[in-house]
């Protein structure tokens, strides 16, 4: 489990395209400290498994399903990525519960700068809109953010200078894709309420 608090802005140093997968080598001096084979590291919000680790770089394999459902397929050598290690039991939950399982992708629609923050508008797939509410949580490229405004096909977030300086959202432009993970609690609530309604319908 992750919390959506990005630890560092890493970089893709190599990309190897396989028949039905892709192998990435990524540089991240912070997240590779103590890393070993089999560990998990979130890359732009996608939970990946460390295959190899040497120095401040690690290698991860990404299967076709993940490439199709996320924006990782658009990465190239030199791409910057958000990196986060799983949270340890007993640590503070700085953001919100993040699984590293991308629900879909959105696109940067626009950016409105201000003196102390910046509003970013992001497109929202129709099937995810019911999980996104004003002042709720959403994960964008692995970053835990609070929704400012929620529309049927878009939402906005307000970014502080730290987020702009230390994550990919500081450099992404309109048209760039982003990974989205909605709040898992909302999905659990929907499922439980759905089962309850279905059950009540049967008994009646």
UniProtKB/TrEMBL annotation:
SUPFAM superfamilies assigned: Riboflavin synthase domain-like (SSF63380)
Keyword set includes Repeat: yes
Domain Lumazine-binding: 1-96, 97-193
Superkingdom to which the source organism belongs: Bacteria
EC number: 2.5.1.9
CDD domains on file: Riboflavin_synthase_like
Catalytic activity: 2 6,7-dimethyl-8-(1-D-ribityl)lumazine + H(+) = 5-amino-6-(D-ribitylamino)uracil + riboflavin
Positions annotated as Lumazine-binding repeat: 1-96, 97-193
Signal peptide (residue range): none
UniProtKB keywords: Repeat, Riboflavin biosynthesis, Transferase
Pathway the protein contributes to: Cofactor biosynthesis; riboflavin biosynthesis; riboflavin from 2-hydroxy-3-oxobutyl phosphate and 5-amino-6-(D-ribitylamino)uracil: step 2/2
Membrane-spanning residues: none
Role: Catalyzes the dismutation of two molecules of 6,7-dimethyl-8-ribityllumazine, resulting in the formation of riboflavin and 5-amino-6-(D-ribitylamino)uracil.
NCBIfam families attached to this UniProt entry: PRK09289.1, PRK13020.1, ribE
Protein name: Riboflavin synthase
